[in-house]
Every structure is written in structure tokens, then in C-alpha cells.
């Protein structure tokens, strides 16, 4: 959709005036949560198609906005960024066939890339924004930790800012359970081979560099959410760029 366009020409035709209908999306997802079975879904396929179209409208707007400050994702389309609504139940005890959320991951190298990107998640009672990466193999984690220590001042300029603390401080809570956070999983102690008395050892304990912030279901209503989303994403982007400068050497 955006391939072959330079950033300046693309932004001349920037964001659509009509924002997505987030209430329609969340109401449909609430209905799915109460009726997660194939007969119900087939009977309400038109509702799914309408909700999906609204979400894709929002992803289109988010993508256009992100391109304005991160042109690396200009090659991505809405289709590249969105996920199937059908769950893979082969190895899960939960055999519910459908997800209870819509998600989009905007990443210059695609959804399966190791490098960090931007994530938008709509789920009743669980909407959130996230920036960064969700999993890294040990050798890349080690390289990131070494870079962090070797360029400590540059790293702290990325993460030790008022807005970063405001959006992503987690008070020790790990996983998606908290209202916000930095690092979905963390080691209990300093990783092997690194100094335990390092002043910023908490950053070394991270097993991923995902910064997330939960938002109210009403966050995506109206047109203002794009400005708020941009501010959250811009706040975490320096951290992500720092890590991507290491990760890109391995992809």
C-alpha cells in the first residue's frame, strides 16, 4: 500500500478525517467473549466484518501517523500489521476458536521480526499500547546488555526521562497484569557474566525490551487518540531505536 512512496509525498495525503468506531469494535468483542463458538460467529459474521473494517481503519490511521515520525515503516500495509482473529488451539487447553481482541504490530521488518515495533491492542477492559520487542534469543540479549553498559549515558537518556517513567514505570509488576511496565519478563538476579553491583542492574535483568501502557476502553473514541498514541510511542522510540541498533546486526 505504501511501498515505493517517499515520506514527503505520502504525508501530503495524510490521515483520514473519519476515525474508527471503537465502541462498535469493543461491543462486538464483548459479544464474542460471551459467545465464543462457531455457530454464533457464523450467525454474526456481518458484525465481525464491520468491526474488523473499523479496526483496520484505525490501524491505517495509526500507521500513517507513525510514518510521520518513523519513516522506516513506510513499506508496511494494514494487512502486514494485523493478525488473524482465529486462535490456534492445537496446543492450548482453551479451545475457544476466536480471540477476544484485535491487535496490530507495526514493524519495519514485519510482524515476526526480532527488531522492535509498535503494538496497538483493543480488548474490552484490556486496551493497551506497546513499543519494543517481546522476545530475544540469549546471544542478542547479551549483546544488548553489553551495549547498554558500554553506552550507559546514551541508554539513560532514552529511559530515564519524566515521560518514560510516567508511562512505563511498573513498580516491580511483571507481565501484562499491571497497568504499565517495562520488560514483560525479568530475571530474579543479575544475568551471568555481568556485575551484580552495577548501578543500573535492573535494566540488565530484563529478558525483553517491551514498554507498555494500558489505556481505558474510551481511549480510542474520537480523533484525539492519535495524538495521545503518538506521544506514548515517541516516548519509547529512543529506547527501541537503541536496542534495534544492536538487533539489526543479527537479522
3D architecture notes:
This protein is an alpha+beta fold and 251 residues long. The protein has ten helices and five strands, in the order αααααβββαααβαβα. It has helices at residues 7-11, 22-34, 38-43, 45-69, 78-81, 138-150, 152-159, 162-168, 201-204, 225-247; strands at 102-106, 117-122, 128-133, 180-182, 209-214. The protein has a five-stranded antiparallel sheet. The longest helix has 25 residues, at 45-69. The protein is globular, with a radius of gyration of 19 Å. Residues 1-16 have low confidence and may be disordered.
Q: Provide mean pLDDT, rounded.
A: 91
Approximately how much beta-strand content do the residues carry?
Answer: 5-15%
Radius of gyration: 19 Å
Give the overall shape.
Answer: globular
Helix content: 40-55%
Question: Given the structure, what is the number of helices?
Answer: 10
Strand order of the largest sheet: 1-2-3-5-4
SSE class: alpha+beta
Major beta-sheet overview: 5 strands, antiparallel
Low-confidence runs of at least 5 consecutive residues: 1-16
H and E string: HHHHHEEEHHHEHEH
Counting DSSP E segments of at least 2 residues, the number of strands comes to 5
Kindly report how far apart the N and C termini lie. Answer: 24 Å
Précis, in short:
By secondary structure, the protein is α+β, with helices and mostly antiparallel strands. It is built from ten helices and five strands. Helices cover 43% and strands 10% of the residues.
Amino acid at each position: 500500500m505504501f511501498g515505493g512512496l517517499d515520506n514527503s509525498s505520502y504525508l501530503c495525503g495524510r490521515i483520514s478525517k473519519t476515525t474508527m468506531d471503537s465502541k462498535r469494535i469493543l461491543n462486538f468483542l464483548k459479544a464474542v467473549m460471551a459467545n465464543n463458538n462457531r455457530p454464533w460467529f457464523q450467525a454474526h459474521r456481518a458484525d465481525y466484518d464491520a468491526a474488523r473494517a473499523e479496526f483496520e481503519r484505525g490501524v491505517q490511521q495509526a500507521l500513517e501517523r507513525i510514518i510521520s515520525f518513523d519513516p522506516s515503516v513506510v513499506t508496511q500495509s494494514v494487512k502486514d500489521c494485523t493478525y488473524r482473529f482465529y486462535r490456534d488451539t492445537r496446543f492450548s487447553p482453551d479451545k475457544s476458536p476466536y480471540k477476544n481482541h484485535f491487535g496490530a504490530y507495526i514493524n519495519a521488518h514485519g510482524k515476526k521480526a526480532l527488531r522492535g515495533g509498535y503494538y496497538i491492542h483493543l480488548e474490552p477492559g484490556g486496551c493497551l499500547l506497546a513499543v519494543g520487542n517481546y522476545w530475544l534469543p540469549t546471544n542478542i540479549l547479551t549483546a544488548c546488555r553489553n551495549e547498554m553498559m558500554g553506552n550507559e549515558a546514551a541508554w539513560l537518556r532514552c529511559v530515564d526521562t519524566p515521560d518514560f517513567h510516567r508511562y512505563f514505570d511498573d513498580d516491580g509488576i511483571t507481565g501484562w497484569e499491571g497497568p504499565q511496565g517495562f520488560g514483560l519478563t525479568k530475571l530474579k538476579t543479575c544475568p551471568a557474566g555481568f556485575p551484580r553491583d552495577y548501578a543500573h542492574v535492573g535494566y540488565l535483568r530484563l529478558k525483553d525490551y517491551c514498554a507498555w501502557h494500558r489505556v481505558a476502553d474510551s481511549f480510542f473514541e474520537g480523533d484525539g487518540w492519535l495524538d495521545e498514541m503518538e506521544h506514548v510511542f515517541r516516548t519509547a522510540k529512543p529506547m527501541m531505536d537503541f536496542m534495534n541498533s544492536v538487533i539489526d546486526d543479527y537479522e
